[in-house]
Amino acid sequence: MAPKKIIIDTDPGIDDILALLLAFSAEPEDVEVLLISLTFGNIEVKSCLRNVVSMFHILEREMKWRREQGRPEGFGTLRASPPIVAVGAEDPLEDQKMLADYFHGTDGLGGIHASHPHLTPKEAWEHLFDPSSDSREIKPVPEGDPAHRSFIPSRRPAHEEILRVLRENDPDTVTLVAVGPLTNLALASAADPETFLRVKEVVVMGGAINKPGNVTPAAEFNTYADAVAAARVYALTSPSPRSTLPPATSLPEYPPSLSKQLTLRTFPLDITLRHGVTQGQFRQIITPLLESGSPLAEWVSAFMAHTFRTLERLHPGHVGDAADLSLHDPVCVWYAMTAEDDGWKPSATSPEDIRIETTGQWTRGLCVVDRRNRHRIEADEESASDHGLWLSLRAGNRVWRMDGSPVEDTFGEVLLQRLFT
Predict the structure, then answer these.
(1) Nearest 5 degrees, angle CA 378-CA 383-CA 387?
(2) Which residue in 9, 23, 40, 146 has the most C-beta neighbors within 10 A?
């Protein structure tokens, strides 16, 4: 059976890095990561690039250390097929930019580049991603660079790389996992909606349905950070995308008819908050590896120490070994890796008409659902009793909201075992 092909659109970010490491921990016959597309979000996109390049730098050191220790190298999918890395959106489509550096630190990894400079490559290879270069051809990192085997830099914008990958692979063979704001996806789908719809499915970490938000009472961070982009991507799940598009934006409307509807699976806070790793679990796995000299253990331990301190400050009841980090982004990657597992369950009401609020003073990024329990009707135009075509069988979004998981009680252990043993 062919490996699952995955694009990861991300804003690394602490749990984003854990999600990437989880993907690369797979065997090459199981998973192939074709592209890492970077967006602003937790931090500025240039800091996201530095964090990703640092990750590859550390993984090269880790695999070398494991070989010298006589241990299995791991990270087989990375060794077999280095991903392309492309830099994408610096700002949201329309909204005021908001970052999550209050949680992740200004560099996205708890200040690790200043506190542990020996773990950060001295050259971040920014020039290899410079779009002003005469050539936009994708070339491997020069052999002299320590991470030359681990990634291929692109000078194209990330949304163009997403479309290129989808064009060059058969329809319905590539899963796009989006664990940051959806700006790159909105740009790609606006530029070429039919090519974008070649994707097998889009897996989104975002939103909150029956839980409060985590940046406002109404909104989860990724959806809030670019609500217009989220609304545009969700609209592609509709039989009539124009029925749920946000008010006029700088991007064009979709064509009146498209060849298919987007399959979108959303992992809101309702499910991701049920997947965590405690400081006690982390300490148990990481301590012997730190004592043995694992570069990866040292690097991850440094930013996780910041994370657990932040959690203790924000949630006074969770201290010491009980401090619990929600693994929002790794859950989405794990789904993409194991989607055939019968333990993954959508909500009983899926597919649902979930729409993203873009203009409310206090409700930007809110996931709006119709809880009125009315009968749907055949309608193409609004009526006095149905503003917004919420009841129309021909309008509204069709989103698969994931609500059940095969690893809900054990995911922290699964993640640590995959990464470190």
Answers:
(1) 100
(2) 9
Find, among 213, 159, 162, 178, the residue nearest to 329 by Cα.
178
Contact by Cβ (8 Å): 415, 277: yes
What residues does 186 pair with on adjacent strands? none
For every residue of 22-38, which 3-state class applies, written as one string? HHHCCCCCCEEEEEEEE
Instruction: Report the alpha-carbon distance of residue 168 to residue 310 in Å, rounded.
Output: 43
The label of the residue with tokens 């749907």 reads 376
pLDDT digits (tens, 9 = 90+) for 53-80: 999 999 999 999 999 999 999 999 999 9
The neighbour count for residue 257, using CB atoms within 10 Å, is 7
Q: How far is Cα 322 from Cα 316, in angstroms, rounded to an integer?
A: 11
Residue-level length of the chain: 421
pTM: 0.93
Three-class secondary structure of residue 346 per DSSP = strand
C-alpha span between 83 and 141 (Å, rounded) = 12
> Which residues 6+ apart lie within 8 Å of 190 measured at CB?
232, 251, 252, 254
Over residues 233-254, the pLDDT tens digits come to: 999 999 999 999 998 778 999 9
d(CA 47, CA 29): 32
Residue 259, judged by CB atoms within 10 A of its CB (0-12, 13-18, 19+), counts as: exposed
* Dihedral sign for Cα atoms in the order 211, 217, 223, 227: positive
- Taking the C-alpha atoms of residue 394 and residue 404, their distance in angstroms, rounded to an integer, is 28
Set out the domains of the chain in order of their start, with CATH numbers.
2-130+146-273+324-418 (3.90.245.10)
Count the Cβ atoms, other than its own, within 10 Å of residue 276. Answer: 18
